[in-house]
Amino acid sequence: MATPVPDLSLQRPTGERPTGQILQRLLPFLKPYSGRILIAMACLLVAKIAGLAVPMVLKRLIDTLGIEPTPAHDLIKVIPVALLLAYGVARLSERVFTEMRQIVFARVMARSSRMVMLSVFRHLHSLSLRFHLNRKTGGVTRDVERGGTAISDLLDWTLYTIVPTLIEVVLVTGVLVFLYDVYFAVITLVVLIAYIAWTVAVTEWRTKFYRASVEADTKASARAVDSLLNYETVKYFNNEGHEAARYDINLRQMEEANVKSYKSLAVLNVGQAAIIAIGVTALMWKAAHGVVIGKLSVGDLVLVNAYLLQMAMPLNYLGMMYREVKQAVTNIERLWGLLDQQQEVRDSEIAQLLQTRRPSVGFEKVFFSYDTRREILHGIDFDIPPGHTVAVVGHSGSGKSTLARLLYRFYDVDSGHIRIDGQDLRDLTQDSVRAAVGIVPQDTVLFNDSIRYNIRYGRPSASDEEVEDAARAAHIHDFIVSLPDGYDSEVGERGLKLSGGEKQRVAIARALLKNPAILIFDDATSALDSASEKAIQAELDRIAIGRTTLVIAHRLSTVMGANQILVMDAGNIVERGSHAELIARDGHYAAMWRLQQQAREIPELL
What is the pLDDT of residues 63-95, one digit of tens each? Predict the structure, then answer.
């Protein structure tokens, strides 16, 4: 059974947040593994107790062996076999339980990191088109990558370094107080407090340099990805140097932040080393003084020294780990920032599933704007009866493609209604609406995978035969089988290995395979030559039979057979009717028709 993904998309203020709040949002992902965490903590405690026993057994061994030389044949009588065995068992137990802790906790680290990244990925796909039009892909992917890694690192450092060190300090301090006088504990605690205070103060000061480095790294990644995706444009205008200079701006910022971070790290390390050195010296002086005055044995001196070494090593790492934890928290904060992005389009609590075969579509007094300062649609009204085709034509920027985006519910209308079978889109689930709608977009972008995968994307459960049938219907099958790898041919990033016309035919095949009740053709033949356009247009007309179809077109020759043609201008429907009716009216449509006919006649004359 799949592990549920906690819903962490609640709105929170953006910007720098308290560490406690950032970590608190991680708890829902850890809650399913509370049993494993408790077992891992128990293994940790047993391992530390075993480690604590090692110096004690060693002290007893030294004190027991501090006797006169013994003949070889009497060694068995004086060698403390039980203590030697206890020493070996204690050391082995410490290692065994340490590894058991890792075995138990490994799943927690890997699964929690995976579930957080999956939650972010799903949330990004749930965001509106507005967010994705404004995002910088390289920066987003860098934040997700760093954040996912930071979660595993944070759990790793916490359970494997910070918590064990704190447990060890408490246990060692307790033993020193119990076995010796309180001064050992006082010195230990003073050193620990000084160490922690110095580490926290300097690390907090250093965090701003890391934040600046992360910000510059994110911007640099976004700029690099944007430049590489537009490789051809860079080459067209000979702007390699310009792109390198823009990229270097962020690299310089990252360099300066990293240099300051490295320098401040040296200050932190020197201070930590000085505090530990002073503390260890003071404790050893106290222990040596006890041996000289006969109050402590040589074994006691060894015991104190062993405990100090046990604490000194992890304390050195503790400072580094605290710094790394702060950096991890910074990365996780940016991950939460992505989850904080508002879902502009949400299903209502009472949203119903759309169930339809031959739907009707209606736009009722629809007003819409991408930006409140500029309205795009001004009270659009039209209906598409079941099985009919309505075409929308008009000049660029008139609002034609916005209709398709609204029907797909990439955005919600500002006012008015869009209905399918009389049901407002806002009362239906987004998944069921989009399952009923298929689109062939004007600008086809393919996945960097095989042709077969890109066609099958219309219906992932489709068989190879169904994929090939869709390709034949889109008149691209013969081209595909002529390729060396056939349907397994890779299309490259964004489909750049294919021509514009080939990509558009793949998009048509993909839409055909989806077999939707509502079809949208958004200038679906714009990248095709005249011969291909005629062949595919006939196929599109065939597959549109019996379906409710919205055709958005620039070439008027492709919409002559539509049941109704809407002419849009500046967000308004200025004319509507059949092709013959609009020609007879001699208005906007007739003027556009004459212009396009003249444009087609000129090449023929040449």
Answer: 666 555 444 444 444 456 676 777 677 778 777
Q: How many CB atoms lie within 10 A of CB 467?
A: 24
Stretch(es) of the chain classified as CATH 3.40.50.300: 350-436+516-606, 446-515
Lowest mean pLDDT among 209-223, 429-443, 454-468, 559-573: 209-223
State the DSSP code for 26. Answer: T
What is the distance between the alpha carbons of residues 92 and 187, in angstroms, rounded to a whole number?
31
Of the pLDDT bands very low, low, confident and very high (cuts 50, 70, 90), residue 134 is low
One CATH from 2.40.110.10, 1.10.286.20, 1.20.1560.10, 3.30.1380.10 for 19-339: 1.20.1560.10
Q: What is the pTM of this model?
A: 0.61
Task: Give the residue from 138, 157, 124 showing the smallest Cα distance to 8.
Answer: 124
Distance between CA atoms of residues 584 and 590, nearest Å: 8
Q: Would you state the pLDDT for residue 566?
A: 92
* 567 burial via Cβ count (<10 Å: 0-12, 13-18, 19+): buried
Is the pLDDT assigned to residue 374 strictly greater than 80? Answer: yes
Per residue in 16-43, is it b (16+ CB within 10 Å) or e — as a string? Answer: ebeeeebeebbebbbeebeebbebbbeb
DSSP letter, residue 352: B
Residue 416 — φ and ψ, nearest 5°? 95, -165
**Opening angle at CA 513, ends 566 and 478, nearest 5:** 100
Task: Quote the tokens at residue 562.
Answer: 């539509």
